[in-house]
Write a structure and sequence with these properties.
The chain is about 75% helix and about 0% strand. It has helices at about 5-20, 30-50, 55-65, 70-75, 75-90, 95-110, 115-140, 145-160, 165-180.
Amino acid sequence: NTHRGAIFMVGLLCAAAGALARDGQPLQPAAVRATLCQRWGAALAARAQQAPTLPGGVVARKLGLRGASHEAAAGFPVLFDTAVPALAAAQARGVAPRLARLDTLFHVMAALDDSNLALRGGLAGLRHAQSAARAFIAAGGAAQPDALHVAAGIGRDFVARRLSPGGAADTVAAACWLQRLGAV
């Protein structure tokens, strides 16, 4: 499963960005998202209706969560409505790039139905991770003086519980890719 979600997400974003570049259009987040939905939305929606075969999709369906296929069919709302704005906002506040990505990770963890967390820890594990992420953000996020120490403590807790926010990490990677593309 190593970054399968990132490959899926960034692959779709690359296709949309390529279509925009071919047409001489600017590579802005809204345009990338609109192109993705316009060109492949119907196919992605059909795919989301199929019975999942991969572990993350199976657990997402079982628990009534929105898995990767549903996120894609909806135009990756957590990526475009949470991750991209969180990354831009952290950077606009002058947060160092590494800490801006950390802040973005916690914003995504708070919002995403991360099937990797659900697969490893069930619904309780997913909700625990989301609660920890919301608490980190409420305490000031990456801008708090001891942010790295606090995040490391959350990381140790996740390791003890066998939780891995892989879907959130994939989403942050996609947001960073959009930024490098010049779209953020």
